[in-house]
Amino acid sequence: MDNYIFLTMEGYTFQPESDAVTSNIENMQVIGFSNGNTADEAFDNLLNTHAYLRDTSFKSIFCYKLDKHYEESRKEYDIDTR
Predict the structure, then answer these.
(1) Rounded to 10 degrees, what is the CA torsion of 63, 68, 71, 77?
(2) Could you give phi then psi for residue 20, rounded to 5 degrees?
(3) 11-29: per-residue pLDDT in tens?
(4) How far apart are CA 46 and CA 63, in angstroms?
(5) φ/ψ of residue 38, rounded to 5
(6) pLDDT digits (tens, 9 = 90+) for 47-76
(7) CA of 48: how far to CAs of 4, 51, 65, 68, in Å?
(8) Per-domain residue ranges for the chain?
(9) Which residues have C-beta within 8 Å of that of residue 73, sequence separation ≥ 6?
(10) What CA–CA distance (Å, rounded) separates 65 from 82?
(11) Residue-level pLDDT at 10
(12) What is the DSSP string of the chain?
């Protein structure tokens, strides 16, 4: 089985201190991760595992297939140190 990440460009993200001048940031949001033999199967698995997603207002979701060892490639960054 392959791993997939599901994303949307709908919605907004709030900064940690949302009283800032720019409180909302328009960006992509991660809907979830799932696995399957195909993207369609992974999407079905995502909806079966996280049934609450059917009650959200997200309409447009897309995915990318991830490498089987994607978890090992995780790196964290601090924006203040860049």
Answers:
(1) -60
(2) -65, 165
(3) 877 777 667 666 677 788 8
(4) 11
(5) -135, 165
(6) 999 999 989 888 889 999 998 787 787 777
(7) 15, 6, 19, 21
(8) 2-15+24-70
(9) 67
(10) 29
(11) 87
(12) -EEEEEEES-SEEE-SSTTSSS-EEE--EEEEEEEESSHHHHHHHHHHH-GGGGGS-----EEEEE-TTGGGG-----GGG-
Residue 37, pLDDT > 80, answer yes
Task: Decide if pLDDT at 7 tops 80.
Answer: yes
Phi-psi region of 49 (alpha: psi -120 to 50; beta: other; left: phi over 0): alpha
The sheet with strand 29-36 has its strands ordered as 29-36, 2-8, 62-66
Nearest to 12 by CA among 30, 33, 28: 28
Is 31 a residue whose pLDDT tops 90?
A: yes
